[in-house]
């Protein structure tokens, strides 16, 4: 199985991939369902319940903020961290949020976002149930699980082979650090040169370099932001 550097390094809001990035993506998935499966303008409220580890430690990981941002349509890859506090405060003050930034509905975080500290869902400890209502009638419900690394599955995907191995042939395959170093010696190449050739089986060299520079720039901005705080 070939592991890409883009599988190992991804951009997202912190502090946790499983407790922040995953719930944010789940919230955006649900917001998209609300926009396509219901008439968003007729929805009266949304309720989100967090279970297991999310219910117990979600506050400390910013799970509640991540969910509000996801419902607003924000993506962890492109969200400007400097805008987060203002977006959250606007929801809290107005007791309203706009689904995907378009359809405003009443939303009070203290009552519409519940931390269930006593129950876990059966499939995974990071479980979430999202519900949308029209009046008192529940018109949409989805269960999501944040399974680590920012990845999310819904209840329909449980038991299915949703993650398939990447079996493409690599020019320089290896299974250990020793094998990688041996390839470098045999081919008179550096580790970065070996890895670049392997990455180019998925994308063009221009795309690989652009993606790596984007990640590097985000890393540098994180350091600068830390100096300012």
Can you give a write-up of this model?
The protein is of the alpha+beta class. It contains nine helices and seven strands. The protein has two domains: 17-157, 60s Ribosomal Protein L30, Chain: A, CATH 3.30.1330.90; 168-228, no CATH class. The protein has helices at 5-8, 17-37, 52-57, 63-71, 84-94, 109-112, 177-187, 191-199, 205-228, and strands spanning 45-50, 96-99, 103-106, 113-115, 127-134, 137-148, 151-154. The strands form two sheets. Strands 4-1-5-6-7 form a five-stranded mixed beta sheet. A two-stranded antiparallel sheet has the order 2-3. Helix 2 (17-37) packs parallel to helix 4.
The sequence of SSEs as H and E is HHEHHHEEHEEEEHHH
CATH superfamily of the largest domain: D-3-phosphoglycerate dehydrogenase, domain 3
CATH architecture of the largest domain: 2-Layer Sandwich
Q: Give the tally of structural domains.
A: 2
| Secondary-structure-derived class | alpha+beta
Residue runs with pLDDT of under 50 for 5 or more positions = none
Report the β-strand fraction as a percent range.
15-25%
In the CATH scheme, the class of the largest domain would be Alpha Beta
Task: Please count the beta strands (DSSP E, at least 2 residues each).
Answer: 7
